[in-house]
Q: What sequence folds into this?
């Protein structure tokens, strides 16, 4: 039928720069400073090794459930590397590497996974502004829009980067956040880490759309799909989106195509729903291996240099674990659970706190009556 | 001092707080040009511009989620949800974030926001426009839940809610919106959150109510005096959470006889907590079982039958007389 | 930058057939049977006149708040005319004309707006399956997906048509419904009546997307924007979508561009937020005027014929009003509020019902004590 | 008869009902290949195929809204929300439609669906994974709210819930999921919804509990007998709404002393309704104020402190002894 086809006002692009072997598409090279490249590499290795150590701690029962990030180092770190220190980051629950880049200490991470709320105040208040982990999937993106709105209202040229997964794009909150950001032209970069799985549900069952990036069109927003295991491509794409936001030209959706190499959380057994071959296929596209190959080729790193970095990182992690465990041993006063319920504890909570205090006194005195 | 309806009094509170503090931002569906479907935000957009008064897209989780973001980043959003029956679309944002962010960040990122919503029956509206489900919020740790009963306290409480460092759910009894006028001073007036008031003194029986139920409770008290020579004390809760039990438990210790009135469904309703606090704190003074006069445990009927659902003066009166007649 | 642009798997079209003067674009003519054309015309006029009468009743306090449909007759009726009797319709709250097409009586409408739940059971149970009005904006579309899923499960070749407004597209539920329908390839036609306003909020502030139809791309779904004041275009577009659904080829989003000619509901004053010029501009595109011009041109209708139809409709409405008012006078037993709370009334509700019964007995006996 | 955990018992209920009635459809996040994150739906997809066991996109309102549509169109959906803390994303669908459709259509379109969700603390989980907010649903007219306490009654109640003509919110105490095994008969067994049970007989004091709190209540009762020679009666509510008050009010009339135990926050919590029913129906038999042993009115702390938040045997015991010692 001779109907008019409606042209979209925005384009959806795909970007990859480094291939799986670390070979560069030179005409797309974002030409990052050497220091940044090395800082990114170190952060990626730290992210990976910290995961391994956390898994170890969890299996020994020294911390509780945690969500590993392995495989997603390039997506997270490439994205967050484009921010200024006064920009905001609004994470989901799987951005440990990015949080550390923003100044979160390893100790704080261990404390949180150890079940201690004190994790929240371990690090200096003047670290780059970052919301805490948001467990309810998709719920944090709206906060990013509100934060961004407040900055524009105060005429600040700051931006917000918010992370979420492929699964999160199915939540109503994703939709409302994207739509609000479009309407208010908020300086937000929506960064979807499409790691192919939402626990056991594959990307293909999450939505019928061929890409997640194209969901941007529903909001009159530009969207781009990036090879999320290629840190250079991530930096390039997100930097462009950040610039756009900072210039007042509104939000962007960036889909990083990546892979969760480990379990969803330590409570999960991925063997139930995905094959070893699939995992191995993605291992070949490992973001760290690829980036190291490139850095070695560019002579920014050497094999012994890498070994030294690995060693330093192990030392850093070891120190953090020791510090955290010492701290955890000193924490745990149950009465702390009443802290910060409200700005001021109302009378009924004072009374309940006192109930618990009495119980604790009793039990210290040998089990009460 | 001028005589204002509750709608006008709320408008005054917003106007003055916005003038005083440019962190105060009003947002919601139709709050701008339209002035809100009940006109509570009328004129604000003319006075403060589109940057301070935001007409949002039609999405309640969006409104609340965005408000949370604004609040953690230094603003004092006052969002309107058009009817309390549509706050449920935002329930997860309220419970999972507004109520928890202070605790989660150990005080680093408080959420000083107000969520305003008209609640309750009595205006012949469509389905979902007449509910009274304040328990959902009163039961949620981390929130405050405020319900004014008249123009003057509505204004004073809204000012306090806006200045409060914690998230406040502010339910406005729409049946009272234009029901009557009260003197409301032009100069600043606040009321502390978490404090109830004696709306009428008396020593023979205690009637506990809030929101739109305070008026019928007062009417019943009046008739008890006129027709039975009985002095009823009426307690207006004003804040449901944190619940101020000091006044009503003291009153019960004085009168020994208590009636709780609310339009919310009875079971697991606000009255249950009040009764329980009385049992916990005034048990030995009670001379009769406490009675609840409440909405029934059904969806509030469409408006042709709404009046028979909502507690009314006669129903309160009858229950009060029964409580008074009970001999222990 | 030399990036790959991602091509969308679905197209978004625009369709108009009759212009504002009733002139036909012949190569797009869906060629509907004469009887259907006349039935559509009558239903459109009935929709309009019934609105006027309801407004009258409301202003006199004989019914409560209601939501007029004037201006949207073509969108609703063109859409619903494509359904079989065993297909489902899932309305929002502004589809009175479509509900009447599906067998709802005018009396039932009056009863509902008069505040009587008995409206729900006034009409025969075997009328074409239709959900009741859904007041919470956007919430009904998910039900359509569930209904559709059940039909496919039973291998029925039925479809579901669900209505919603431009404002509804901002709700998370819209997103979840569209996404579920895409994933499950549900036989659902999503019909958006974009009447330009959500109470006082204009379409342009509802979303940054240029069309609502393009939101289909986010779900890998075809979308089409239609001149919603052109009943032939609506029939053509929706018929195609219904066919697609029935054939098992999944859902479609149809955006009907139309206009709400009256107030949002009778509680609303549109003068506060929109200009008379705007309204007059749309009056020129009136769906009934345009369709009548076409039918007269095609000699399917004459001026006197139209006058007769108008007269018959007034009679029909008058009869319904009288019937409804008589019925309302006979209804109103408050105890009915307990009916159908549950399949079986639990003991506490029995007791509460008895409380009310006692109160009613008391007050009949003269106010109790 | 075999010894099953609660997870296995629930799985048995689902399997048998699905085999018996092809209108029963299981849907939710990860319920298919993964068998649910707690494995309650394990193996169902192999036995009944992808048409009967649907892995949905990650969207709770979607899951519930779709279930409502399935239910009005003749199916019997049993949807799983992964944790009760994520039912809030669907709160509007539950309150505005599941709970109202029967009433709205005057019986023409009932919504026979079950919403299953694990609730409560005790498994060292992340934030939002340990809440106990059953009041949100118990207070909502039109819903039934069921909470089993052990493998055998969980199975019997789930079967009844699936067959129930009304929407049932079915909260599963995840702390009990694998805590112990019980004999569960292979042959069909049901329990009526809306009926509580005497879990232990006694004449000196009544302990009222449900879900994960039944075990510590029973332990406390045991110790009261052993250490104090006191016979405690333990009532297991099993259904919160409609609340069966006949058993516990009768028990209170017998013992005169009552303790209510739940892990939900105290204020406006389930205990308040129970206390109030007791006041309304057994007032003159009460020999001491009723006590509540409950969660505190704060967000349940992260797991390092969770044990101090949740009511435990010792805390119940101490409160019970205080109630027993009270002289009126
Ligand atoms: C609202 C909500 N529903 C369900 C869950 C349980 N849950 C936690 S993570 C997850 C999958 C998330 O998938 P995705 O968004 O792709 O992020 P990923 O885990 O892959 O990083 C689910 C279902 C939750 N945390 N929040
Ligand atoms: C969830 C929800 N929020 C708010 C409202 C109040 N309300 C009723 S209709 C409406 C506007 C709807 O706009 P649209 O979807 O365009 O439909 P239209 O009224 O134009 O037909 C609003 C805000 C509601 N009924 N439900
Ligand atoms: Mg994922
Ligand atoms: Mg509209």
A:
């Amino acid at each position: 039928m001779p109907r008019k086809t409606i042209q979209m006002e925005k384009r959806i692009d795909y970007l990859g720069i480094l291939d799986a072997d670390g070979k560069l598409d030179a005409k797309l090279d974002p030409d990052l400073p050497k220091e940044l490249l090395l800082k990114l590499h170190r952060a990626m290795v730290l992210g990976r090794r910290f995961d391994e150590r956390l898994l170890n701690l969890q299996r020994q029962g020294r911390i509780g459930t945690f969500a590993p990030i392995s495989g997603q180092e390039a997506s997270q770190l490439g994205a967050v590397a484009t921010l200024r220190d006064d920009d905001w980051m609004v994470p989901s629950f799987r951005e440990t590497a990015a949080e550390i880049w923003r100044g979160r200490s390893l100790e704080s991470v261990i404390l949180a996974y150890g079940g201690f709320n004190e994790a929240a105040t371990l690090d200096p208040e003047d670290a780059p502004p970052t919301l805490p982990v948001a467990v309810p999937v998709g719920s944090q993106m709206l906060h990013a829009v509100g934060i961004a709105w407040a900055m524009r209202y105060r005429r600040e040229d700051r931006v917000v980067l918010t992370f979420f997964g492929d699964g999160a794009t199915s939540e109503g909150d994703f939709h409302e956040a994207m739509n609000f950001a479009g309407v208010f032209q908020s300086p937000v970069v929506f960064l979807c880490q499409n790691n192919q799985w939402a626990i056991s549900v594959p990307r293909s069952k999450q939505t019928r759309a061929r890409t997640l990036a194209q969901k941007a069109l529903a909001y009159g927003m530009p969207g781009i799909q990036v090879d999320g295991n290629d840190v250079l491509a991530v930096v390039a794409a997100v930097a462009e989106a950040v610039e756009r936001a900072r210039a007042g030209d509104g939000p962007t959706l960036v889909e990083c195509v990546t892979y969760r190499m480990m379990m969803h959380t330590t409570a999960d057994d991925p063997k139930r729903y995905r094959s070893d071959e699939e995992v191995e296929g993605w291992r070949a596209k490992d973001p760290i291996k690829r980036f190291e190959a490139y850095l070695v080729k560019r002579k920014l790193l050497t094999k012994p240099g890498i070994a030294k970095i690995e060693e330093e990182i192990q030392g850093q992690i070891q120190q953090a674990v020791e510090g955290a465990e010492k701290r955890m041993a000193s924490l745990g006063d149950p009465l702390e659970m009443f802290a910060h319920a409200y700005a001021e504890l109302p009378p009924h909570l004072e009374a309940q706190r006192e109930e618990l205090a009495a119980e604790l006194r009793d039990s210290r005195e040998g089990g009460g009556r | 001092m001028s005589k204002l309806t509750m709608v006008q009094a709320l408008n005054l509170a917003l106007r003055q707080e916005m003038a005083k503090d440019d962190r105060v931002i009003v947002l919601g569906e139709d709050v701008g040009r339209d002035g809100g479907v009940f006109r509570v935000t009328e004129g604000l957009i003319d006075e403060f511009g589109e940057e301070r008064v935001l007409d949002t897209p039609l999405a309640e989780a969006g409104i609340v989620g965005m408000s949370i973001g604004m609040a953690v980043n230094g603003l004092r959003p006052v969002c309107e949800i058009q009817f309390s029956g549509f706050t449920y679309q935002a329930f997860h944002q309220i419970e999972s974030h507004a109520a928890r962010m202070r605790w989660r960040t150990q005080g680093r990122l408080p959420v000083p926001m107000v969520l305003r919503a008209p609640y309750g029956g009595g205006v012949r509206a469509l389905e979902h426009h007449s509910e009274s489900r304040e328990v959902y919020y009163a039961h949620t740790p981390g929130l405050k839940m405020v319900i004014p009963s008249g123009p003057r306290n509505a204004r004073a409480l809204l000012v306090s809610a806006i200045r409060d460092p914690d998230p406040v759910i502010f339910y406005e009894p729409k049946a009272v919106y234009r029901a009557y006028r009260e003197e409301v001073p032009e100069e600043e007036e606040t009321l502390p959150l978490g404090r109830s008031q004696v709306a009428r003194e008396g020593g023979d029986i205690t009637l506990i109510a809030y929101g739109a139920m305070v008026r019928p409770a007062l009417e019943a008290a009046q008739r008890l005096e006129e027709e039975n020579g009985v002095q009823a004390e009426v307690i207006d809760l004003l804040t449901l959470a944190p619940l101020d039990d000091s006044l009503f438990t003291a009153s019960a210790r004085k009168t020994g006889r208590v009636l709780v009135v609310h339009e919310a469904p009875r079971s697991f309703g606000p009255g249950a907590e009040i009764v329980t606090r009385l049992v916990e704190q005034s048990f030995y003074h009670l001379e009769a079982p406490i009675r609840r006069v409440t909405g029934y445990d059904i969806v509030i009927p469409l408006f042709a039958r709404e009046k028979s659902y909502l507690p009314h003066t006669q129903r309160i009166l009858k229950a009060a007389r029964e409580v008074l007649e009970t001999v222990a």
